[in-house]
Amino acid sequence: MYNAITTLPNRGDLLGTLEKSLNPTCDAGELVAVIVLRVQRLKDVCIEYGYTESDTIIEEFIERLHSCLRDKDYLARINTDEFALVLPGLKNQAQPIMAINKIQRTCCAPIELDGREIKMKLAFGSSVSPDDADCADALLRCADLALRDAEVGDLESVRYCEREASEPVQALQLETQLEAAINAGGLQACYQPIVDVETGEFAGVEMLSRWPNGPFGPVNPSTFVNTAEKSGLIMPLTLWCLNNGLRECGDWQAILPNVPVSINFSTLVLTDPHLPEVVLRALNLWNRDSDTLTVEVTESAIMANPETCLQILNQLHEHGLKIAIDDFGTGHSSLAYLKQLPVDILKIDQSFVTNMVDSLADRRIVQSVIDLAHNFDLTVVAEGVEDEETLDTLTLMGCQRAQGYHVGMPMPASELNAWFKGSPWELFNAPAA
Ligand code: C2E
Ligand code: CA
Ligand code: CA
Predict the structure, then answer these.
(1) pTM exceeding the 0.70 threshold for the entire prediction
(2) Contact in structure between 422 and 198 (CB atoms under 8 Å)
(3) If you average pLDDT over residues 46-70, what whole number do you get?
(4) Closest residue CA from atom 32 of ligand 1
(5) Which atom of ligand 1 is nearest to the CA of 410?
(6) How many Cα atoms occupy the beta-carbon half-sphere of 7 within 13 Å?
(7) Whose CA is nearest to atom 23 of ligand 1?
(8) Using alpha carbons only, how large is the chain's radius of gyration in Å?
(9) Candidates 46, 192, 208: which one to mutate for ligand 1, based on the most atoms within 8 Å of Cβ?
(10) In angstroms, rounded to a whole number, what is the distance separating the alpha carbons of residues 412 and 190?
(11) CA atoms of 60 and 46, how far apart (whole Å)
(12) Which of 48-62, 271-285, 416-430 is most confident?
């Protein structure tokens, strides 16, 4: 009946307890809420930290979860990465929302482990009886559906009764708060190392933005980049990336001169005729050489407006910037088109890389991209390298560079130094300025 690792009740026990809470003898007018929450990418945490460390992290997480509950609340672990809460005796619909907010704040605060900080990312779904359902099975199902909506929509939390209606409201809230975050320092820059597997040297970083305190807790980058694109905030976001990325890489000058930094440029930015001017101004402001900046663009971003993009990419390339095609293999660009693009780097999409050791089909795709890159005289980077075996296989296949959790997680600039020191890569052979 009980979950072996954590001694928490399981799904069967949950349904029994929930049924009892819904018993009509409970006080009239009182509500019972069910909240299901999933720890996002728990598997990635296990891979990154190992299973023993992950158990420590989960134990700390469960302790924090308990600290958010009242005596009469009930907690079960219904899957490896999924928990369910029953909150009986509620007075109004706002109480479960406040509980979710409290859990977000408490459980997503960094967990310290061996001097490192781990932040959990959670998705929630909730339902309330009697409004949404009045039997245990149906109420849990409503909460599960809401959780699924939250995950599909990249939202932190969805209430069953608001599944449809809440979307425009949430979108508007996200826009307003994103603008404030860009302007008032609410975003964080993380840097993920890229290494050269041929020479064993550090090859640079990709800058990835984080929004840790969005309206419903941390917001997924794909979600807020999408919001920025839809709401005219993509240029301010890109400017924020340029200024922070170039400034912070400049700060490492004394330790690692001219660290190459890659920044993601999305579709709309690539059609703005002012882009080259804006980029050059930022390079100048932070006193960085243009060949230390790589612009990452996806095939689909280019194909959305090929003529304008080509012009802009050509201008950037003429000024010495490097151009990388991101997520290569997932778009529909023709090889003939690739020939016309001023490209220096191909980044093999992680969907082909993460399972390549077990999948012959993925290995063939990866080998084809590596061969293509060599034939076009391009540097090839494999993304999503999650273990040693994948790294070794890529090296044997002739892939030059690697990026992924096995090499290094995306981390704030302040942690990069510790990563350098603990890393097997020959980091300090970077050419002198
Ligand atoms: P991307 O450019 O393909 O970035 C790589 C994504 O893969 C990042 O997700 C990174 O955290 C994740 N990743 C890195 N190593 C591994 C690994 O070993 N395994 C797995 N499974 N994943 C790995 P993230 O940070 O969530 O970013 C998602 C996407 O959001 C990025 O995809 C990029 O397209 C976009 N993005 C992030 N920051 C920015 C930004 O500042 N501006 C723009 N325009 N887009 C951004
Ligand atoms: Ca990228
Ligand atoms: Ca990518």
Answers:
(1) no
(2) no
(3) 88
(4) 222
(5) 11
(6) 3
(7) 384
(8) 24
(9) 208
(10) 4
(11) 15
(12) 271-285
